[in-house]
Amino acid sequence: MNKFDITQLNIYPESLMYYTGKFWIFWKDLNSQYLGCNIHMAKDLLLKSPKDIVGKTDYDFPIPKDIAKHFIQCDQEVIQSRITKQFWDTFMLRDEKKHFVAIKSPLISNNKVIGVYGMSYSRTTPNAELNDSPMSTENIYNLTIRELEVMKYFVSGHTAKEIGKLLSLSYRTIEQHISNTKIKTGCRTRSALTQALLDYFKYKT
Description:
The chain folds into two domains: 6-130, PAS domain (Beta-Lactamase), CATH 3.30.450; 145-204, Arc Repressor Mutant, subunit A, CATH 1.10.10. It contains six helices and five strands, in the order ββααβββαααα. Helix 3 (145-154) packs across helix 5 (171-185). The radius of gyration is 17 Å and the shape is elongated. The chain has a five-stranded antiparallel β-sheet. A hairpin with a 2-residue loop joins strand 3 and strand 4 (96-109). It has helices spanning 39-44, 65-81, 145-154, 160-167, 171-185, 190-204; strands at 24-29, 34-37, 85-93, 96-109, 112-123.
């Protein structure tokens, strides 16, 4: 991450490195080379440390080459569009079939896309067998019920003062919930927070 000013990033991806939730968190450069990942992803990929992923690509791991190519194509789609997107992936990892939902967003510094970051979580059923979006049933950031209530209004463009009135809570309490959610999602700015959660609430409605 020393190739650019981390204080100008739209998120602090390295703050997610030691998050222990059971989903993969990762960030890559413009060439889809890994800049880092969280402990859970490193463990699944048989790495000694999250830092061991730095410089590798999806071709370096025990997944089918066509799947690795697909992962990278998805990276480039997000980078080119500058839009957060959701992808379904089903592949074999060490003789076990995995059904993953991947949510990827552009990594931005000084309004310039410098890579991609995202998270993937496992489902027990493939996309074709689900009747609704995975985002409607999976709280991947482990937000509390109150944080989800606040974020529902937040991503819709309401101010903290407005949310406080809607939920009968103080302005300070709403600001604290927003701050906590930024920490959990690794987002540095409010615009990045909105972008990270927009798909979740789009599918919840």
